[in-house]
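Objective 1.3, modelling of assemblies. Example input:
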Amino acid sequence: MKQNTTSLLTIAALAVGAVTLNAASQEFDFKDPKGVNNVSFQLDAPLESISGNAKGVSGTVRFDPENPEAVSGTIIVETGSLTASNDKLQEHMLGDGWLDAAGYPQITLTAKSISKVETTDDGFKAHLTGDFTLKGVTKEITVPVSFTYLPDMLSARTNGAAEGDLLVIRSTFTIDRSEYGIKPGQNTNKVAEAIEIRLAIAGAAPDA
Amino acid sequence: MRILALIITVCAVAFWLKTGAHTGFSKNRVEIEKVDPITQIEYVDYEERFIMGVEYLALSCAAGVGLFGLSYFFGRHKS
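Predicted structure (tokens):
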């Protein structure tokens, strides 16, 4: 009888612990109907500077403000949502010679681990290591990233339609297009090899 | 013909200056930078508007210079 009681208490304690742990970690959804979330890109070649952005951002990130090292999740960008400043350039960029948006409709970054976490005035900054996939090629990259946790701010963003928290993620990093099989070594006078990517996205975790 | 060459060149330069004297290639949409008041995320909205680039400016000036040059061949001949 005593042994059964001890077992029951142990199970109850574990269950409470699990619930507490789960409550601290929240899942933030980065689908943004307001069209604010964006990923911008910049290429500076000797003869031409190309810039634009993408607003087709989605994905989920699990984040615990008490334990930012435990972050996990994937951010997805629809390749077809990449916009440049002129139609001809955009058509070329999304065509099969360059990004092939029809064949590779998504660009993704999946978090694997996080390091060098530092507390800032409004959140955390860290180095995030993850798998970056572009045009079907996946490479492990480590990028600087900042997290701004905004508790109870979802209501302000949705005009009171939903209660909950917001998480803003920002990162700026550079990739080399040749490493992702995008015309390596070609057209470098007009299309730079280095692509600077700036990520500024907010996810929402509505109260259950 | 020389007057036409001058008009083309002046109009091209004036239009280029009016649309912002953009030193890159032409654009048919313009970025408008905004900031979300809650998250402070900076984002860009696009406005459909033509911005003349240097390629059209160069073509127009070349056409003006070409016409000016041709005017010597097709000008009035003194008898």
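Helices of chain A lie at 2-24, 87-94, 154-157.
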